[in-house]
Design goal:
homodimer; two-stranded antiparallel sheet; about 325 residues; Farnesyl Diphosphate Synthase
Chain lengths: ~325, ~325
């Protein structure tokens, strides 16, 4: 079983999500409309709508509101990518040129704002629980901004601790995973204990997902169209480096951190730090920790009744470790 | 009477708005918190919260929700300024360095997102009509993004018509003025006809306000800390130029438009276009048109009962023509 099977299982509702995305983003401003259609055609993994739909299915069944919440979750994800591209100065995303590279960084900000507001509109259109859904996603948006700001702050001081790191990646990635499943559970009127189980699942899955992203920044993954070494170039201290730092005496660790702090002035120092991570098995240790989060995610699902959706959620968690999708 | 008298009249509720802004933006991320406090301390005119509070007062009285909606309107305004600074590459705003200049354009995007989501939280906290208020401001946010994208599109083709121009400035400025008064009216349970009158007032006022902004870009206004000639440098065709273009034969107008289209490559051409605007009294003609919008704004208020707030709204409209505040 692979990720395409989950998408096949959800083909019907995912089709509805796609139709809703397209309808929501329609604009009579030609430049905006063309850009939206081009972004939509790039597709992407659609992992967040899948989470919403699987959570709804696991709690009783997908309804029209599940589709609306799934679409909102994908809109918010893409809005944050559009804003992230400005934050990261990214020229490519999913192996394709970004809006920033094609148009300009202003356009990327504005189009991100547009997608964000269309997400709110989707939530407002819900038959029930509009306000609670808006509350869920508003928390995520606040987390996202705080997480990115904490990351900027830590990157300039090079004093990221493990606690900071987990907060940053929870805020950047896991919080939206959590809102995605919670909105699905909400649409299906899930009881409290299933909702809590799904939240635990999503938090652990999201953290594992982001750790894998950070591992790929060291270990590479050309098929993802993602360049390597970006984090370090921006002085971001992620789990592979934290694991390596934990395995040496404090003084040596401080020296490496000081080196990271000089990378923006002396980019050639990045190679030294990468060697340090390799020598102390940073990537393997990070991979092991990621495995723990995945196990925990699957464990959280035990609270849920046995359904096909529950199996897919468990499989989805196991795929995250491989991320060939 | 001047603008400070309106602020004095509203001192109590404006104080509550300020307190709510500060509480809403509180964050334990030091970099974010410090930036928020510094932005708040710059103050600004607070014209949008004044509109919300005056509209509520004119329709029966300011309640706790009026303050929440007023704060949301100020948060959204500042969020869009933060995003605009990235769009415009602005280094100063209100005569002070922008977040972009102090931190980075990424930070400006993220902090803008943070303010935006805090606006949504303020609306969610309302005792009544949360959803309707969110709907009002969501429309504005969508207008804002569409308006800016239309402006980008038109700036590259240099084919802005009067109709485009009015749509752009409605979307950029008047739409939020409209949402500000409408949310105030909503908080006071205003009857339909008062609400419609206030919407008409705000649309006309917002358009006049933006025309005045565009006039200042030609005529200068050093005390506003606003540099001159920015619009033209970005190939934006605004009312003073449109008025001048209307006063010459079509062929001559096309030649000037073509010249505008080359400004990003040959910045020295801007001086030619400025001279053209002067020679054809573009600024005076634009000022006369702005006067019509202000008259119309004041006329819309006739539907409202005679209150102190109504007089302040009328005075506010008349101040816009001078904009020494």
């Amino acid at each position: 079983m692979d990720y395409s099977q989950i998408k096949a299982f959800l083909a019907g509702p995912l089709e509805e999500v796609s139709a809703l995305l397209e309808a929501s983003l329609k604009s009579d401003i030609a430049l905006l409309d063309a850009t939206n259609l081009s972004l939509l055609s790039q597709g992407g993994k659609r992992i967040r709508p899948c989470l919403t739909l699987l959570a709804a299915g696991a709690c009783g069944g997908v309804v029209a509101d599940s589709v609306r919440f799934a679409a909102a979750s994908e809109l918010i994800h893409n809005a944050t990518l559009l804003h992230d591209d400005v934050v990261d100065g990214a020229a490519t995303r999913r192996g394709k040129p970004t809006v920033m590279a094609l148009l300009s960084s202003p356009a990327s900000v504005l189009i991100g704002d547009f997608w964000l507001v269309k997400a709110i509109r989707c939530l407002l259109e819900a038959d029930r629980y509009s306000e609670r859904a808006i509350r869920l996603f508003a928390k995520t948006l606040s987390d996202l901004a705080e997480g990115e700001m904490l990351q900027l702050q830590k990157a300039s001081a090079c004093d990221t601790t493990r606690e900071d790191y987990i907060r940053i990646i929870y805020s950047k990635t896991a919080s939206l995973f959590e809102a995605s499943v919670l909105s699905g559970a909400l649409s299906a009127d899930a009881p409290e204990e299933w909702t809590a189980a799904l939240a635990g699942y999503a938090r652990n899955l999201g953290i594992a997902f982001q750790i894998q992203d950070d591992i790929l920044d060291y270990a590479g993954g050309a098929d993802l169209g993602k360049p390597v070494g970006i984090d370090l170039r921006e002085q971001k201290i992620t789990l592979p480096l934290l694991c390596a730092l934990d395995s040496v005496p404090e003084e040596a660790a401080s020296a490496v951190r000081a080196k990271v702090g000089r990378i923006s002035d002396e980019p050639e120092l990045a190679a030294d730090v990468q060697r340090f991570v390799r020598e102390h098995d940073g990537v393997d240790k990070a991979r092991a920790e990621m495995g723990n989060y995945i196990d925990e995610a699957v464990f959280c699902l035990e609270e849920l009744p046995q359904t096909e959706e529950k199996s897919y959620l468990a499989n989805l968690a196991r795929f995250v470790g491989d991320r060939t999708f």
